[in-house]
Specification:
Elements lengths: L12 H10 L5 H14 L6 H10 L3 H9 L11 H15 L2
């Protein structure tokens, strides 16, 4: 079980690949953070946002997790609208528990 509740049906190949990669990161924490964001937002990302999200997928789990949790400052080149939306979603979901 991956945790995804969103089917890749109807997505273009680029988004299908991203959705899969979000749920298969390597550490479960990042699967949940990226996967939940992708479940809700993958269809809405376009242009630069999609490019930025793909760039985030290349960041090692330990760095990305530290940025999302606020343990380390996010480098300017990764502090994009997409990153902030993903981070904010993570914090919002954490408060709802």
């Amino acid at each position: 079980m991956t945790g995804t509740r969103r089917s890749s049906e109807g997505l273009d190949p680029r988004r299908r690949k991203l959705l899969f990669r979000c749920w298969h990161r390597g550490i479960r924490e990042m699967d949940l953070i990226l996967g939940r964001f992708a479940n809700d937002e993958i269809e809405n990302l376009a242009g630069q946002e999609l490019d930025d999200f793909e760039r985030l997928m290349e960041v090692p789990d330990s760095d990305l997790l530290a940025w999302v949790t606020g343990e380390r400052e996010t480098p300017a080149e990764y502090d994009t609208v997409v990153f902030r939306r993903m981070r904010d979603m993570h914090w919002r979901l954490g408060k709802d528990r």
